[in-house]
Amino acid sequence: MAIPLSEGAKKALDGQSLAHVATLMKDGSPQVTPVWVYRHGDHVMISTGTDRIKTRNLERDPRVAVSIAPVDAPFPPILIRGRVIKIIRGEEAVDGFVEVAKKYGQTDPQRPPAAERVVYEIEATHCFPK
Description:
A seven-stranded antiparallel beta sheet has the order 2-1-5-6-7-4-3. The protein is of the alpha+beta class and 130 residues long. Strand 3 and strand 4 form a beta hairpin. The chain is globular, with a radius of gyration of 14 Å. The protein is 22% helix and 42% strand.
């Protein structure tokens, strides 16, 4: 069941927080990757390349966990579990990349080819702290 993000989670996602996303490999083992994150409403957004391991994992299994550590106050970290509810491709995915790149300090990010980018929209089912 989807839940709204806590105010702390929203604040962390809106800042330049360090985030790690955990996905599941084909054999069920975990795979963790640092990522830039942003949010749209109560959804966590992750922009990545189409050639990444996390991309293959999320295409096969939408379950995901995200740990977010705000740079100015990393403890306690924000922990979100949820699932991918939307996969965004094409120019809209490139727009997502540009949005997150600017958020993390790139003043004029180069637009990569649309075929190389994907954005995952994640709905939270668990958020700590609440």
